[in-house]
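Exercise 7. Predict the structure of TraR/DksA family transcriptional regulator from Aliishimia ponticola.
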Amino acid sequence: MTTPRDTLLKLRQEILAELDHIEQDLDAPKPKDWDDAASERQGDEVLQALGEHDLEELRGIDAALKRVDEGEYGFCVKCGSEISPERLELLPATPFCKTCAAQI
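Solution. The predicted structure, encoded as tokens:
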């Protein structure tokens, strides 16, 4: 049986691998042709946005792992209610129950 910690650690590894891939793409040599360089810059902007999103997701996973360690995983950080197993299955790092998430 997969534990919440296992699920979160797997997600964390996937995001770290994606961030590594993004970093490699951003560090790749740039083309010398002006048109190609402009296209490359646009691609870099997209990669940077994806990287920022991934870093935010990574912070959420790390916070969820801390809640696991503290025995608070599965409970809403706002109201203290239990988060439904279905919601945790879809969003393993969520800190909010469905009701509180809708209010944010």
